[in-house]
Amino acid sequence: MSTFSLGTQPANSAASPIQGCYLVHFDQPYRSGRHPGAQHYVGYADDIDRRIERHRKGHGSPLLAAVVAAGIGFRVVRTWPGADRHFERKLHNRHGSRICPEPECVSARRR
Hints:
The protein is of the alpha+beta class. It contains five helices and three strands.
């Protein structure tokens, strides 16, 4: 099992393809029965840029497909190059809002 710290680098800071984990921040919360206020998505890909393009077309993750269908924008705010699926699970357990660098998430953690 690989060990990675939660140290990251900004999204899109290296040339493609980047294999690893990524954190997506929605422009507004997505609300549905299963997702009462989701605003983040954590994923893994062998090529993060290509995977994000698929997400933007509504393919792949059901949550991101629903976000796209609802007209909600999103952006990749962090990547963990070289991370594996075990690390992705650790990120899921931490919840996106706890690791998101966006100002509204940081200020919510301080409250």
